[in-house]
Amino acid sequence: MTLPARALLLLALATGSPAAPAADPLLASAPERILEHRTGPLEITVVDAAGKPVPGTTIEVEQTRHEFLFGCNIFAFGQFGSAEKNQAYQDRFAELFNFATFGLYWASYEPKQGEPGHQRIEAAIDWCREQGITTKGHPLVWNHPAGSPAWLKDMDLDEVRKLSDARVADCVTRFRGRIGIFDVVNEAADPVRPGFETTMTGLIQQVGIEPFTTRAFEIARKANPDATLLINDYRTGPEFEKVIRFLGAGGKPLYDAIGIQSHMHGGAWPADQTWQTCERLAKFGVPLHFTETTIVSGPRADGKWQPTTPELETSQARQIVDFYTLLFSHPAVAAITWWDFSDAHAWQGAAAGLVRRDLSPKPAFSALLGKVKQDWWTRASGKSDAAGRFTTRAFFGQHRVTCTLPDGTKTTAEVALPRANGKASCHLGPEGVRTQ
Fold it and tell me: Is 202 left (phi over 0), alpha (psi -120 to 50) or beta?
């Protein structure tokens, strides 16, 4: 008996990469949701010069890029001190990711007034574009020492506001066409944390967090009407929902997506917590981006993070697969960004990388690669029927279709299967490719 394409894909989703049986009901049902929300029918029709169908054509479909954004920050680009290590970083990054986040923290980006470091990220942006990696800037505004240069100290607050506004406009305008996604305001749900006071704190207290945040979004939108703008926070409860609501008070939200930080240095979130977070924030009707995700593979002792260990690396790999599987199965989630690719540059010095300090891959890297580029990656083949058609279920994204006619002639086409359409048709003939 020949199984239909849908059944075959569901079987692959359920049994692809080696993993322990999913005891949690949400994880156990994830393959069916992935099939429903992340795939659609792709139909290829082959015709001859007269427009007649060509049966018996061998057709091969291979995915070339996910529509879903699997990403990581790229702060360590070119920072490893040797050409060999820098190349290893780039090779492994491009092997797994199609999405990269660039650091635009004001304090380090413009350490001297009037001297922003635009050129420092130019090479990395160009490299990402060459690799087909989508780029994002993070963050434009943040009340934190990293987001408030020392030279702002003692400035008139009205002047500080003008400088902050100008910076938002400059970054979005300068990188238009090269960076199209931005975390506009970071952590607005907790804008005045004790111990993190900066010059920006005084500005927020003077104007109020709602006008402060709204203005930043309005400036960013004017600088690039086509940009995807995010409100990003580590708080995911009522405080964050309040910010989301006032940014949508005018009827049309000022944001295009909601950013959710998920640093899990203290342990992976339970499946129900992850799911409920998605469910609560999905009600605002825009895509959800998990913007800063970490699970560590090293212990903490004497108040310090320790190096990665084999035992915790195994645990990290399992937890990452579960977390990504659950998020990939939720229809509202559109992006997941890992936070620091290598332990050598990981946040807080924790062993939160997918690769070790020497850039060798951890089990987490291999396990996630197995999901993204194998279990969740279209590879299909077959022959056209009497009507010249071949249909398969494919993951949303870009695909390369190769048709070998009965006489040995080959035709290749690049075909997009966007989630917005839910399906795609590709007609291959002497005149080339025509898609619907």
Answer: alpha
Vertex 294 angle, CA 292 and 298, to 5°: 155
What pLDDT does residue 1 have?
33
Q: What is the pLDDT of residues 192-235, one digit of tens each?
A: 888 889 999 999 999 999 999 999 999 999 999 999 999 999 99
CB atoms within 10 A of CB 308: 24
Backbone region of residue 302 per phi and psi (left: phi > 0; alpha: psi in -120 to 50; beta: other values)? left
278-286 own/partner pairs: CB under 8 Å, 24+ apart: 278/327, 278/330, 278/332, 278/333, 280/236, 280/241, 281/236, 281/240, 281/241, 281/244, 281/332, 282/330, 282/331, 282/332, 284/244, 284/248, 284/253, 284/258, 286/253, 286/255, 286/256, 286/257, 286/258
Pair 152, 163: CB distance under 8 Å: yes
Among candidate residues 253, 277, 147, 263, the one with its CA nearest the CA of residue 203: 147
Above pLDDT 70, what percent of the chain?
93
Residues 6+ apart with CB under 8 A from 51: 429
> Is residue 384 a contact partner of residue 44, using CB atoms and an 8 Å limit?
yes
- Residue ranges of the chain with per-residue pLDDT less than 70: 1-22, 431-436
Give dist(CA 255, CA 143) in Å, integer.
19
Give dist(CA 366, CA 17) in Å, integer: 10
The residue written with tokens 């060798």 in the block is 360
Residue 32's H or E segment, with its range, is helix 30-38
CA distances from 147 to 67, 198, 210, 292 (A): 31, 9, 18, 17
pLDDT of res. 194 = 87
Please list the alpha-helical segments (H only) found in 262-309. 271-282
What are the residues facing 103 on neighbouring strands?
Answer: 138
The Cα 318–Cα 174 span in angstroms is 41
Spell out the domains of the chain, with CATH numbers in brackets.
5-65+378-435 (2.60.40.10), 68-375 (3.20.20.80)
Per-residue DSSP letter, 327: H
Contact yes or no for 185/177 (Cβ under 8 A): no
**What SS3 class is residue 112?**
coil
Rounded CA separation 329/34 (Å): 5
Query: What is the pLDDT at residue 23?
Result: 73
